[in-house]
């Protein structure tokens, strides 16, 4: 057993980070989970994460653990809440700083390190280790709050997408159904979509138009302040 | 010197909380600071806060420290960010979970414990200890983001207020000037204000009407989703 060689005048909690990684498969919101290889909760699914090293910031820790455990590199993670209930970990007092990220499914390639990482539909999440169900629910709440003011949803779609895909994404995140024409008009009115390609002249009326997210227009919009109203 | 009797296999950071307490004096945003009595930064102004006890949650710690250092009790604090830069405290690695709260100035009574607590105008903050200027700036950013979607501003006003007071509050938080008539119309249109009292029959045109915040109307509005547009 390793020596207890780090000593302090007062008890210190351990500090960890946990990451909620959201994806979208065209129909439902997905969450990336890892299967725990060690106790406690050995064999159970959990959010990727781990202890903060004494020489790294929490965000550095989150990105490092994410890469080690899921193979995901270079992801932009956003801190949303710190969980500090005194009994949330049976080993010792552990405070967890939670991050979330939105990734395109196409960018995730499982590596050797990631053999135990797997996507689950948000509506079909297994029983999670620790208080990770609580962390996950709060992450979704943050995503819901943000999607009405920021185009975070576009981070979950492929670069080129149809209006139907965009509508399904908003429906999946917000847990509601929209009227097709209404959604279409509201999105176009925002002027943050650009046609992805000239429509082929021989396109039938049933060929859906393809769009890209227009980051420049969005930046303008954000300056003015806006809200997607549904 | 106290014994170093709490020992761990891996180095553990200390964890603290810091509180940004906002008030409003009718003209400008105020921040409650305390003067440090010990090193490091002895004599300098800082946010109220302190180390998280091993048997309390971060929120419990924030409320306890706030009461001990400023006399403020029963304040509803909201977590907004955790600061984890490795060199933010010269003593040891300290991670700080930051909270903010909005209080009515009339509710703050300095006690003996609070002898070193003092309100400063946001535009006239002295040089702060640690990274507290950074924590304070982020707290104001959160307040600005929230005030457009939630009636947080009303927590800073007396129960009964004039439209001019409300306008000055929004101007102080957002750092802009509004057209008086425009602001008035937008606020009335939101329907979250109620007349505080029947207008005296002999009131001159110059006697300002008094309002209260209507929490019930606001709850309705929030269900529908809204944004104050300026």
Which keywords apply here?
2 domains, homodimer, three-stranded antiparallel beta sheet, alpha+beta, seven-stranded mixed beta sheet, Arc Repressor Mutant, subunit A, Nucleoside Triphosphate Pyrophosphohydrolase, 11 strands, 5 helices, 230 residues
Whole-number radius of gyration of chain A?
20 Å
Helix content of chain A: 25-40%
CATH domain class of the largest domain in chain A: Alpha Beta
Q: Which quaternary structure do these chains form?
A: homodimer
With helices defined by DSSP (H or I, 4 residues minimum), what is the helix count of chain A? 5
Low-pLDDT runs of 5+ residues of chain A are none
Kindly identify the CATH topology of the largest domain in chain A. Nucleoside Triphosphate Pyrophosphohydrolase
Protein chains sharing the most extensive interface: A-B, 38 and 38 residues
CATH superfamily of the largest domain in chain A: Nucleoside Triphosphate Pyrophosphohydrolase
Shape of chain A: elongated
Structural class of chain A: alpha+beta
Proportion of beta-strand residues of chain A = 15-25%
- Distance N to C terminus of chain A: 58 Å
